[in-house]
Amino acid sequence: MAEHATLVPLRREPPAEQPSSGPPEPLWREVLGQRLRTLRLDQQETLAETAGRAGISPQYLSEIERGRKEPSSEMIAALAGALGTTLTVLTGQVSSDLRRQQAARVPRASGPVMLSLAA
């Protein structure tokens, strides 16, 4: 007699909800805006001066700096050039800012940590 295999469907457990561990992760556009504002203020420039060189309105630059608008890559490159930097350098700075903010959000273990291995 032939034996028949019985198929048992695998149950998928619903994903565990991640506990909220503080404020939400920052958006790229918010961190980009903060970095652009910092660069502009470090050079003691007004919104109008930087926006004029980038070919945009001061109002639009203000919205970008406040994280309200998501500029195109061409616009980000124009702003980088207007601020005397490159898209590569600016992107690296924003990436570093994001990592720094993420590290500040991650709760750190306090006290000794014990690890065990099962054989």
Descriptive notes:
50% of the residues lie in helices and 0% in strands. The chain has 5 helices and no strands. The mean pLDDT is 84. The protein has 119 residues and is an all-alpha fold. The chain has helices at 28-42, 47-54, 58-65, 73-82, 87-105.
Order of helices and strands: HHHHH
Number of strands: 0
> How much strand?
under 5%
The main sheet comes to: none
Question: Which key phrases capture this entry?
Answer:
50% helix; elongated; 5 helices; mainly alpha; 119 residues
Topology overview:
Layout (H helix, E strand, L loop, with lengths): L27 H15 L4 H8 L3 H8 L7 H10 L4 H19 L14
Condensed summary:
The chain has 119 residues and is mainly α. 50% of the residues lie in helices and 0% in strands.
